[in-house]
Design a protein that fits this description.
Shape: globular
Structural class: mainly alpha
Number of strands: 0
Length: 334
């Protein structure tokens, strides 16, 4: 009897040990969104990020966790395609982005496009990020097909980004949606053909910059985009002062409007707040082109500050590419 009791105790201990080991393995296998975002935004190692996400999806348990992994897979698949598009055929690019409209379902054989991953993410759990990356995939496919196709996809894309910005209580990466809206409004013709507007594009791009991630990103693309929009608009200080006052009235008038509608006039509000962080002057006292130059200079200074701290060769290479674009544009304008 004593032997039997001893065996029972040993078995209990073995079972307890196995339970502990299983629990530990589940902890170590748990998806860490910060690790994925570090690989993507800090290291710029998109291949490693996609591998990490693919492995994490296999062990994901909850719908929320699967959704978080899948929209990041959409983000990284799209970015990998952007990075390698010069070496890909049009068919290969469309296959990677996903050749769909905003309201389409993925084809039965598609299990790896950027659109597919965003679509699947939304099936598990709705997040603003999934709507944003779904819109981005639709936009990339439209660009591949040309201007007329992009025009047809524009309003459904806008609706996806509007949903991301307006229907969720929290959207820490809202900067990305403002960027897409700015590009849409800048690229499209105005009424009656479409909804394009240079001024709305500039307001949205300013909103993008004021909500951007300054810790993990250099944001050179944002500074370059706003600089180019301002350079092309080419208002002098007197016209800016007059127009900003009108925009501020519209901003105040639209306080009860939707978030995206109100921010069409964000430029007027921002100009009333003194000098922004990229220029040592009130916006109403300088011209569009003076501010454009200041944006490029500031973007270069940010990269110069972060370059020595770059985490790995890929991050350094990405920063140097951004810096070269800003410097080339600055040399062109000077």
């Amino acid at each position: 009897r004593y032997v039997i009791i001893e065996l029972e105790e040993i078995m209990k201990r073995i079972v307890l040990l196995l339970v502990c080991l299983l629990s530990l393995s589940m902890v170590f296998a748990a998806f860490d969104k910060n690790e994925s975002d570090r690989l993507f935004y800090v290291e710029n190692d998109y291949e490693a990020d996609f591998a990490y996400l693919t492995k994490s999806l296999q062990s994901a348990v909850t719908n929320e966790e699967k959704a978080e992994i899948l929209w990041r897979m959409s983000r990284t698949r799209l970015t990998l395609t952007d990075e390698n598009k010069e070496r890909m055929t049009e068919d290969e690019r469309l296959s990677a982005y996903g050749d769909y409209g905003a309201n389409d379902k993925p084809k039965s054989g598609d299990t790896s496009s950027a659109f597919y991953y965003a679509y699947e993410s939304l099936k598990y759990y709705e997040t603003p990020n999934a709507y944003h990356w779904k819109a981005s995939a639709v936009g990339r496919a439209g660009q591949e097909h040309g201007a007329l196709n992009s025009l047809g996809k524009a309003d459904p894309m806008r609706k996806l980004e509007t949903k991301a910005l307006e229907e969720f209580s929290s959207f820490p990466l809202e900067t990305d949606s403002w960027y897409v809206l700015a590009i849409l409004y800048r690229s499209l013709p105005g009424k009656p053909i479409s909804f394009g507007s240079d001024n709305y594009a500039i307001s949205y791009m300013r909103k993008c910059i004021m909500t951007q991630d300054t810790e993990n990103r250099t944001n050179g693309t944002n500074f370059l985009e706003l600089a180019e929009e301002l350079w092309n608009r080419d208002w002098d200080a007197k016209k800016r002062s007059k127009e900003f006052a009108s925009m501020l009235k519209s901003w105040n008038k639209n306080q009860k409007s939707s978030y995206t509608e109100m921010n069409k006039y964000y430029e007027g509000y921002l100009a009333s707040q003194g000098s922004p962080f990229w220029v040592a002057a009130d916006l109403s006292t300088i011209s569009d082109r003076q501010e454009a130059i200041a944006l490029l200079q500031y973007g270069i200074s940010v990269i110069n500050y972060k370059l020595p701290k770059a985490s790995g060769s890929l991050a350094k290479e990405k920063m140097e590419e951004e810096k070269a674009k800003l410097e080339a544009k600055l040399a062109e304008w000077n």
